[in-house]
Amino acid sequence: MPPVKRTRSPLTPPFDPTRAKDYPPVIGCDEVGRGALCGPVVVAAVWFDPNAIPPALLGALDDSKRVPEPVRAQLAPLIRAHARVAVAAGSRALIDRINIRAATLDAMARAVARLGIAAPVLVDGRDALPGLPGRAVVGGDALVPQIAAASIVAKVFRDDLMRRLAERHPGYGWERNVGYGTALHRAGLTALGRSPHHRLSFTRGFG
Description:
Blueprint: E1 27-32, E2 41-47, H1 55-60, H2 69-82, E3 84-90, H3 92-98, H4 100-115, E4 121-124, E5 134-137, H5 145-168, H6 174-177, H7 183-192
Parallel strand pairs: 1-4, 4-5
Antiparallel strand pairs: 1-2, 2-3
């Protein structure tokens, strides 16, 4: 499968529904939470035939970081309704035990296995999944619609989880920062110490 290269305006979504035939039916895989100080890393694996989903949905897909939160919340259930979706997570304990990269790849392999679909696996970033057909795609959120869909599903899933955890562990600002190392989060760590959900390997120096 040759690499995909496109240029676009920063305000233009990357996937043109009139070119659906140019996007192959692959599995896209992406993670959310790799750089957070706490909580799991969450992975989604998504398969669909771009010719068989609603054109408006294809045209709305993008890197989850570029999609406003209310739109992500609308897109995630639509993706689940029109695609095959699997989600897996690497826990805080697993991240501390085997490191974040290995925990992410482990979760990706489990998510892809849950799909039960024989198709190439395209992974956002630089790490392909060992033993599976496919490849890594740097900037894949803007090049492969299934990766963009996976990033949205994973982001909505993890953000919802972190907001629920914020109700049980106030003071770190997870309802706003969803576990990333903002000034509010670090101030909470200084004042309260670590919670059971903080990654020990990411929060050395805090009690």
